[in-house]
Amino acid sequence: MKILLTGKNGQLGFELQRALAPLGEVVAVGTSDCNLADADVLRALVRRVAPDVIVNPAAYTAVDKAESDEATARAVNAVAPAILGEEGAKLGALVLHYSTDYVFDGTKQGAYTENDVPAPQSVYGRTKLEGEQGLAAANPRHLILRTSWVVGAHGGNFAKTMLRLAGEREKLTVVADQFGAPTPAALLADLSAHLVREHARARSTGFPYGTYHVAAGGETSWHGYAQFVIGEALAAGKHLKASVDAVAPLATEQYPTPARRPLNSRLDTTRFRTTFDLRLPPWQEGVRHVLRQIL
Fold it and tell me: Boundaries of each RmlD-like substrate binding domain copy (predicted)?
């Protein structure tokens, strides 16, 4: 099996290189190898590699910057997945792509299911939704995994930012009215490898392609997440200026940003868990593991 992996230097791409390696030859590319915003370069890459599977964690994830750089965000988040779908379809390849809770407006009271109608409130969310739609229209052999609040030991993320700030300041203020589930990049990578393996086994008998919500179990706010990170770090002997109690809650309206964030980022993972008979561990387990690596 030959696997083309984009975004090799990102949080998820880094973990996917490890998780996919036992399944076959992995051709991993980053921005320096292939500019996803260049359609011709992207098409040429797929044709040259001729993969059996395309795994695409690459994305324009600078949510606020995207508000003033919509053309680039659309090229990477919307056009590129459609191109991967088109070129993959010519090869009969599976395309595994990752999307986001930001395709929803965050106003629902409960967790979002795959049947809920998307209503993105930002350029990032809109372009990610367009990417989903473009891929699905181009290639029936697709898996789209919507996830939330990705965290990993490699690359930048919220947990690392909180550790840095808690080491510099005695008090922190963190948004407390946005809810979701911090999801480890390693968990997503391992689940992805499982899906690729299952697809290889089931191709002659059919496979449940489509869109699935995949996130760690449970929920928290950014404020609760920050307190957990600081508490775990202090328990591990990390010297920090800020204590858990020094993290003050903040309302979203008190912290204006160029891009609107959904207040509710909770994703219902029932379809994924029942379809593939897999368990999604509580978010605390994964974040604790990531923190052990970081610390």
Answer: 1-293
Residue with tokens 């920090």: 240
pLDDT one-digit tens code per residue, 246-257: 999 999 999 999
H/E element, 86? helix 80-91
Q: How confident is the model at residue 204 (pLDDT cuts 50, 70, 90)?
A: low
* Angle 65-69-74 from CA coordinates, rounded to 5°: 110
Q: 16 Cβ partners below 8 Å, 6+ apart?
A: 5, 8, 55, 57, 189, 192, 193
Distance (Å) of CA 172 to CA 161, 248, 260: 11, 6, 22
Supply φ then ψ for residue 153, to 5 degrees. Answer: -75, -20
Q: Does the domain spanning 2-156+182-216+266-281 belong to CATH 3.40.30.10?
A: no
Contact in structure between 282 and 217 (CB atoms under 8 Å)? yes
Query: What mean pLDDT do residues 189-203 have?
Result: 94
Average pLDDT of the segment spanning 47-55: 98
Amino acid at site 266 = R
Q: What is the pLDDT of residue 265?
A: 96
- Rounded Cα distance between 147 and 131, Å, is 15
Amino acid identity of 144? I
Domain spans of the chain? Answer: 2-156+182-216+266-281
Is the model's pTM score more than 0.70?
Answer: yes
User: What is residue 58's predicted lDDT score, i.e. its pLDDT?
Assistant: 96
Burial class (CB in 10 A: 0-12, 13-18, 19+), 245: exposed
The CA-based angle 140-145-150, given to 5 degrees, is 155
Active site residues: 124
Q: What are phi and psi of 294, to 5 degrees?
A: -65, -45
